[in-house]
Amino acid sequence: MIIGGDKEELSAYLGRRFDSDNELGEPVRLDLNEPHMVTVCGKRGSGKSHTLGVMMEELMTLPTQVKSNLNGLVIDAMGIYWSLQVQTPDTDLLEDWDLSPSEYPVKVYYPAGLEEQYEEIQQYFHEGFELYPSELSVEDWLYLLDIDETQAQAGLLSQVIEEAEEDFGQYYSIMDLLDKVEASPESANIKDALHRRLEKAKNWGIFSSSGSKIEEIVEGGEFVVLDLSGAGALPWNVRTMLTGILVKKMYNKRSFDRSREEVKKIKGEHTEVNFPLVWLFLDEAHLFAPSGHSEPSTDPLVEWVRQGRRPGLSLVMATQQPGALDNRILSQCDTLIIHRLTAGQDSDAVGDKISELHDAQTISHYMQQIPKEPGYAYAMNDDAETIVPVKVRPRKSWHAGESAKLEEFLPET
């Protein structure tokens, strides 16, 4: 069975169907041929991050001629998906599924200014990334630096950014801004306050006058993990701002490239992909697009799920709080993978989506039926008028998303 499609070679092996006695049956696959907006939800420890990892593994096993036009990008705010590079040690479990351990060719980026923190683990964290400060508007900087637009610092910040753009174009650094602040005739207390905030931003290690271009990170045939955990140094508002910038740039690049491809198709000319189709993975999605208020990443993600299918943009997001996710995003998802949920706002949000199927039971019915062990889920797609019970297959690579346990530090016997 292929959920959402009909081409097995362009689908992901998600797991196997389970029955009322928890016996495993036919394989369950998810379509990767067409763009999809996928939400994976479930309470803590139910297997959401594991399921995302399985889908990442499957994306990297697609035929070579397909992968060359495709990029997989993980916005990794938790710092756990670098482990796709390492084989799982659970070989016995894989044998039960007739699978073998595997490691995957993943490129992991981290904030370039934090290279010292990553020094001991650079075997798995490969290259630093930076953005131009000019990628952010004055309003963006006010948000990041927690400055109200009515404060005197806001006026000074706007002034020094304008001066830096006049002197350096887009290629200025935070140090250039700091120099402009020092040279300003503004009062010392206002200058000192803004100076402290800009120094803090400089220490995040993500802004430089020699920033990375999106084309250098998002290339066809590559699978990229962008580690925004920043060794614990990046505040959440910085992570959501970076995500918003990247999502907006990818959407714009890919949308234009799709128009170019269609023109060539009309002319009967051979077309090549300049900017690849993208499968974007986002864990803890409710923090990037929450209900009730907007983050810098909210509107770019809403536009991605609403308009991304035509240019070939897909999104796979996981959340333990679907009720806290912006409903504009959840309503646009065509595929839903539901792990165990507790009653309340989160179950209600998923229940509303399930109710769109004419033969569906209530969400409480499914939660009563689902086994309590991690990895069991129900999958549904808008094109199929059914809900499929599935036991997600084991990971072939190392799963770094498990909770730390004291027993790990006991000597081996």
Explain what you see.
The chain has 413 residues and is of the alpha/beta class. Helices cover 34% and strands 18% of the residues. Strands 1-3-2-13-12-11-4-10-9-5-8-6-7 form a 13-stranded mixed sheet, covered by helices on one side. Strand 9, helix 11 and strand 10 form a beta-alpha-beta unit. The longest helix has 31 residues, at 236-266. It is globular and about 75 Å long.
Low-confidence stretches: none
Portion of residues in helices?
25-40%
Number of E-state strands: 13
Q: Determine the mean pLDDT.
A: 90
Q: Helix count?
A: 14
What would you call the structural class?
alpha/beta
Side-by-side strand order of the widest sheet: 1-3-2-13-12-11-4-10-9-5-8-6-7
Determine the N-to-C terminus distance.
44 Å
Question: What about the largest sheet?
Answer: 13 strands, mixed
H and E order: EEEEHHEHEHEHHHHHEHEHEHEHHEE
Content of β-strand: 15-25%
Shape: globular
Computed CA radius of gyration, to the nearest angstrom? 23 Å
Name its key features.
13-stranded mixed β-sheet; globular; 34% helix; alpha/beta; 14 helices
Brief overview, please?
With 413 residues, the protein is α/β, with parallel strands linked by helices.
Blueprint of the fold:
Blueprint: E1 2-3, E2 11-18, E3 24-31, E4 37-41, H1 48-59, H2 64-67, E5 70-76, H3 91-96, E6 107-111, H4 115-118, E7 127-129, H5 138-144, H6 152-168, H7 174-183, H8 188-203, H9 214-217, E8 223-227, H10 236-266, E9 277-282, H11 298-307, E10 313-319, H12 327-330, E11 335-338, H13 345-354, H14 363-369, E12 376-381, E13 384-392
Parallel strand pairs: 1-3, 4-10, 4-11, 5-8, 5-9, 6-7, 6-8, 9-10
Antiparallel strand pairs: 2-3, 2-13, 11-12, 12-13
Helix pairs in contact: 6-7, 6-8, 7-8, 10-11
